[in-house]
Amino acid sequence: MSEAAAIPLDARAPVGMVGGGQLARMTYQAGIALGLTLPVLAEHPDDSAALSGAATSIGSPGSLEALRAFARECQVLTFDHELVPPAHLAALEAEGVVLRPGARAMRFAQDKAHQREVLGALGIPVPFNRRVASVDELAMFGDELGWPCVVKAITGGYDGRGVWIFDDPRQASELFASGREFLAEAFVPIDREIAVLVARRPGGETVLYPAVETVQVDGMFRESVAPAPMANDLRVQVGELAQRIAEATDATGILAIEFFLAEGRVVLNEVATRPHNSGHYTIEGAVTSQFENHLRAVLDWPLGETWLYAPAVVTVNVVGVSETDPRANLRKALAVPGVHVHLYGKGPRPGRKLGHVTALGDDPGEARERAVRAARLITGEETGGLP
Amino acid sequence: MSEAAAIPLDARAPVGMVGGGQLARMTYQAGIALGLTLPVLAEHPDDSAALSGAATSIGSPGSLEALRAFARECQVLTFDHELVPPAHLAALEAEGVVLRPGARAMRFAQDKAHQREVLGALGIPVPFNRRVASVDELAMFGDELGWPCVVKAITGGYDGRGVWIFDDPRQASELFASGREFLAEAFVPIDREIAVLVARRPGGETVLYPAVETVQVDGMFRESVAPAPMANDLRVQVGELAQRIAEATDATGILAIEFFLAEGRVVLNEVATRPHNSGHYTIEGAVTSQFENHLRAVLDWPLGETWLYAPAVVTVNVVGVSETDPRANLRKALAVPGVHVHLYGKGPRPGRKLGHVTALGDDPGEARERAVRAARLITGEETGGLP
After folding, report:
1. Phi, psi dihedrals of residue B234, rounded to the nearest 5°
2. Do the Cβ atoms of B253 and B78 come closer than 8 Å?
3. A218 confidence band (pLDDT: 50, 70, 90)
4. What is the largest CA-CA distance in chain A?
5. Which of A41, A46, A190, B238 gets the most CB atoms within 10 Å of its CB?
6. ipTM beyond cut 0.95
7. What confidence tens digit (pLDDT) does each residue in B274-318 have?
């Protein structure tokens, strides 16, 4: 609530985005319709958003000087990642730069220990956790809570990176050799994973997207199915938790909240204070895309509606399996009926997110089948006759 | 069918667009998702598409040299308008430049007399017409067919420009003072206007979009309602005519065909060989937007499906009434539920198309109400409290 309400149009861009990845690319694309030209601060001139035509400043999110220079061109800064050091965020705010989300909200995504501590204290169900800095401390935690144990990097982890599962504390000796502190967590026997997007304006107004079921492979996001097939009481509970978390973080823009469903309970998994892979389905599947609502929220404009345009909306990531340019197989994928293909312009390599495919339909299984087929035709995992 | 089938990826852009208006802007936006970076040949650096981030060459569509230089950067050229002189199109094709649509197809949009003559000879219902070059010739035509008479510029007219209705031949004396030839047409007592989009690949494969009802004000396109409320036999007839016209023109890409419904008959009004205002509704309202299908067709990729995502999809143009920047009122419009706003980045002035608004719904009247309200809030014709 410390942020100013409305932003007048002046010579600076109304909003600029730190980071030049696919989230910035799709935010840029959404901005075109609103007459916004979103400049980005990217590390490389061939970053995804730079290739989409965004005015690009080259600079590291770790450089306060680069951030300052970029901030001078924009009325408000927002982010496509959590990689700006908290001290830089604090320095920028102290200098009067408007950050949306602000440093305080970003910390919930940047510092897992802080996130667990603050949200846990508010009664949000988080996994039982403790900071550990040695094999002995992990052993004590695991012997108390039971094995296996989850160990997470407190900062810097994402998409499965920075998460380990250990059956025995000695397996973690290499990890602790760095002298760093980690977060040990009780292992949650996950039945399913759920994600909820919230868009929130500076004044606190929010809109909630329908909960989606998500599928991870090796910790990396791979699929979403909207709406998540789940019992109504759980749906209500997840929505209420998401609202409370949005309020607690005081975030502006899109907030993506991931939950575990485990033995009938809802447990918080992760919080991201930016557009998120679990919300790509909103581009075609919801009245207002997460990217447009992120811009609206960051600009303190009225938020758009979030209902679905079809009974089932399935999004499947295109993840590289080789060095093949995804555009080489694109025409095969476009022969699959009713699929929306998004390529990010990124150089192909195995394990890299190169794009995604969304399909709308009446039945989630049928829509998923089309989306998976198109994604696998692009990567070359399936081959099809050339139409 | 003279065009090559598939286009390999090489150092040149797969496709470039001549013209930098809002059609190029929205085509560029659609291309981002497909990993295409569509360069444009624009007349001014602040043309709509140039502002959207498209790599922009500055040059006039009337300059063969500018067209040649632009063609060297692209494997295929397509167009956001019909303003390239036919002789230039022919010259480019003679030099081996791949034009999609080609010069032959473009002529149907560029030369109304040719269009009427060729399509009329194929049995397509066109208004009775004759070339006239003087008041006397017009008088003879009108006395034979009855007054009022419609007089059209044979080339260069669009969006109501280049069309006159005369009750008396003497009213046309100023027009004929130029010595130019015009097309005189029998006045059609229009009940309603209908538009149909066809996307067509070089090999002849087509997909047809649902017919929409359109509303013109002073000859300028203002609204579309999809699907057009019309009797099924007329719907079938319109679809068949559109298919036959697509075949006759041998066009590649989007072909927009406008019809009059007059006393239960279908009469051809206009043919455009490019994305069209009557298809803006497809961005959110149809499975595949006209802009994506234009790119797919021009690249000879499989065409996307064309069914509607809602029972009613209404698009209303934002037409300037003053010098007010449409972005100034944007936030008011975004408070209207479920509207998709598109601004073209164009400088405001009365009578200029500055953007459009699309609303999906179950009922066309209700959806139209929302779209009209949002459009009028942007222009300032309506005022609303600041949300």
Report:
1. -65, -40
2. yes
3. confident
4. 61
5. A41
6. no
7. 999 999 999 999 999 999 999 999 999 999 999 999 999 999 999
A34 burial type by CB count under 10 A (0-12 exposed, 13-18 middle, 19+ buried)? buried
Domain boundaries, chain B: 16-99, 128-186, 192-379
Other beta carbons less than 10 A from residue A217's beta carbon: 11
pTM of this structure: 0.94
Could you give the CA distance from residue B223 to residue B240 in angstroms, rounded to a whole number? 24
SS3 B269: strand
- Exposure string for A140-154, b = 16+ CB within 10 A, e = fewer: ebbeebeeebbbbbb
Q: Which of A261, A214, A209 is nearest to A234 (CA)?
A: A261
Tell me which fold the domain B192-379 belongs to: D-amino Acid Aminotransferase; Chain A, domain 1 (3.30.470)
Whether A33 sits inside 8 A of B335 (CB atoms) is: no
Name every chain A residue with its beta carbon within 8 A of the beta carbon of B345. Answer: 35, 37
CATH code, B16-99:
3.40.50.20
C-alpha distance from residue A240 to each of A27, A108, A214 (Å): 27, 18, 19
Nearest chain B residue to A8 by CA distance is B328
What is the C-alpha to C-alpha distance for residues A382 and A379, in angstroms, rounded to an integer? 8
Q: Do A331 and B299 touch (CB under 8 A)?
A: yes
Query: What CATH number has the domain spanning A128-186?
Result: 3.30.1490.20
Per CB-CB distance under 8 Å, the chain B contacts of A302 are 331, 334-335, 387
Q: Give residue-wise pLDDT tens across range A141-163.
A: 999 999 999 999 999 876 678 89
Smallest Cβ–Cβ distance between A345 and the set B35, B334, B335 belongs to B35
Distance (Å, whole) CA B84 – CA B205: 26
**Largest Cα–Cα separation, chain B:** 61
- Provide the angle, in degrees to the nearest 10, between the axes of the packed helices B86-94 and B64-71: 40
Q: Which of A28, A304, A335 sits opposite B302 (nearest CB)?
A: A335
Cβ of B53 within 8 Å of Cβ of A28? The answer is: yes
Cβ–Cβ < 8 Å for A129, A117:
no
Nearest Cα of chain B lies from the Cα of A54 at a distance, in angstroms, of 6
CA distance B26 to B16: 13
Is any Cβ of chain B less than 8 angstroms from the Cβ of A299? yes
Task: Count how many pairs of residues, chain A against chain B, have C-beta atoms within 8 Å.
Answer: 103
